[in-house]
Amino acid sequence: MHWDRVRIFEAVATHGSVREASEELGISGSAVSQQLRKLERELGQTLVEPSGRGIRLTAAGSLMARHARAVDRQFRQADEELSRLSGDIGGRLRIGGVMSALRTLLGPATARLVAEHPKVEPVIMDGEALEFVELLATRQLDVAIVEAWTSNTFPQLSSLTAQLILDEPIDLAVPADLPDRPRTITEAADLDLPWVVCPPGSGAYQTVTDVLRQAGREPEIRYRISAYPSQLDLVASGLAIALIPRLARESAEQRDVTFLPLESPLRRGLYLMTRVGDDRPVVTEFGAYLMRQRELISAADRG
């Protein structure tokens, strides 16, 4: 049995989608489908079948998936132990990161890591903390950058560790031509403008809803958009107001947006999450490059 085909099948079984498996593996969807068909012929079993827009496992596929995941865990464990033994910095590094950290923190740090250690193969996905915690715990990610807002944090598991990378203030973003200058979230809600926030499960969404509901108000959240540049486009167009972490303000270049400090300050922390005991050189070095990039950001803020 060809291991690469089993690995591809394991990715398909995990995601329930050829497209998502191809994105994780960095190969085309047609190549994934071709390898699936070859594995089915090799086993003499049908492993997957169509289900709506995706696929689902057959009984044989579910059985094969359990064994494939067990073998995958053994291979990854062997790779981790060999990396520690040799001290070599290389191999695939699966990284999760909140979108706002990609441009100024995660992207530059990863680029420098690869430049210094060309054997490293980064695979990056964006998302939210709840998803990343699960993917780390099940060894589908190696590291993740997650956010914790003043009123919203991420799940704590004994198998995972979190290191603070960056602590930053959160400002209220309003259209530049707005005559009013609200000082609190409640005052901002009195404006004739709806909110644009990240989707449910995010710190921004939870913060806006918690603060206003505690004040007996139901927030008008008309736009749910993960990307802060797109949020700021709506603010600049006079369509919405938003809460923007300081790191995301770089994307406000040449936009007609005014940033207002809040009377009751809000803050956001960015944390590097890893599995307890995962001291592979590539993981340790990635953390070091993140901290260096953090220092560059802090120096730029100090002017």
UniProtKB/TrEMBL annotation:
Residues that span the membrane, as ranges? none
Q: Where is the HTH lysR-type domain?
A: 1-58
Q: In its keyword annotation, does this UniProt entry include Ribonucleoprotein?
A: no
An example of a Gene Ontology cellular component annotation for this protein is: protein-DNA complex
Q: Name one Pfam family in it.
A: HTH_1
Q: Does the keyword DNA-binding apply?
A: yes
Q: Which domain of life is it from?
A: Bacteria
- Alphabetized CDD domains for the sequence: HTH_ARSR (cd00090)
The terms under GO molecular function for this entry are: DNA binding; DNA-binding transcription factor activity
| PROSITE patterns per record | HTH_LYSR
Which family does the record assign? Belongs to the LysR transcriptional regulatory family.
Protein name stated in the entry = ModE molybdate transport repressor domain-containing protein
